[in-house]
Amino acid sequence: MTQDEIDKVATFAASRGKLMSLAYRMLGSRAEAEDVVQDAWLKWHLADASTVLTPAAWLTTLTVRLAIDRLRHLRMERQSRAAGWLPEPWLDGIAPSAEEEALRASAMSYGLLLLLERLTPDERAAFVLHEAFDCDYADIAQTIGKSVANCRQIVHRAKTRLQRAGDGRRAGGKPEPTVDPSAHARVVERLRAAIEAQDRAQLLCLFAEDAVVLGDAEEVDAGAAIASARWVDQVSSSVHTAEAVTINGRAGVALLSPEGEITGLLDVVGVRDGRIVRLGVVSSAGSLRAVNAAWGARAVMRLLRRIGRAEPVMC
């Protein structure tokens, strides 16, 4: 490997965490984000680095444009599905990777990722760059190929659309009140404990009368009280165990099969007066593939085998 190639690898490695986080925010899918970042690497590998004045900005611009193109394609695909589609949750690790550190630094809640699905690709790119990565309008304009004035308008329009969408989540058009993280965590732990105990009565008590359950699989319904009751009946009879996890920087619940594979991820998106008003349920095999590859039982067993083969450490 030549020195230029080594420098290229080092430059890309230094930006990869940010690029991965940016692509994930744009696409709502870790697998799709990895594909976009891989495409960015291939284009960077083939580029003449001597003509690039600021590699980090070049890579950011390339990744955003690749993500915009990919998002336009995915939107048609997602809208054609019989079942719903939800963003793939990002589980935080015990020893965070560069991607996880970048994700935390540009944190957006899972609930906000749901709302971002309402934006156009250009609106989503401008909003994510401005709000999550603190980019100024001049940088955003250069990245997405719009004028500064246009980008300012795009971000303003995106904020207005998100505010209206968020306000509409509660009957009467009133926004859900902001919930303290510790209060949110207590509700999530009560949910986990009730699922673990298969306590149907306690599960039903956790949901508000106007609760909505959003799912990415056909068996999960969206609706009010009857939908949450139907979901409660399903989960209380089919889940082997429930574990506390951190999803996009916030407390959540992982549902596990008897074999230790993750069969569902629950994110309590909305809480009011200590009860759940909006729950996101990710349970499709496709959405959980990346999660199980990193955290499922088979992934844990592979890690244990690697540890078992390692040389003992002398203390």
From TrEMBL:
Source species: Paraburkholderia sartisoli
UniProt-listed InterPro entries: ECF_Sigma-70_Domain, NTF2-like_dom_sf, RNA_pol_sigma-70_dom, RNA_pol_sigma70_r2, RNA_pol_sigma70_r4_t2, RNA_pol_sigma_r2, RNA_pol_sigma_r3/r4-like, WH-like_DNA-bd_sf
Name assigned to this protein: RNA polymerase sigma-70 factor, ECF subfamily
One of the GO biological process terms: DNA-templated transcription initiation
Coiled coil (UniProt feature): none
Pfam families reported in the protein's UniProt record: Sigma70_r2 (PF04542), Sigma70_r4_2 (PF08281)
GO molecular function annotations of the record: DNA binding; sigma factor activity
Domain RNA polymerase sigma-70 region: residue ranges: 14-74
UniProt subunit comment: Interacts transiently with the RNA polymerase catalytic core formed by RpoA, RpoB, RpoC and RpoZ (2 alpha, 1 beta, 1 beta' and 1 omega subunit) to form the RNA polymerase holoenzyme that can initiate transcription.
Location of the RNA polymerase sigma factor 70 region 4 type domain: 112-162
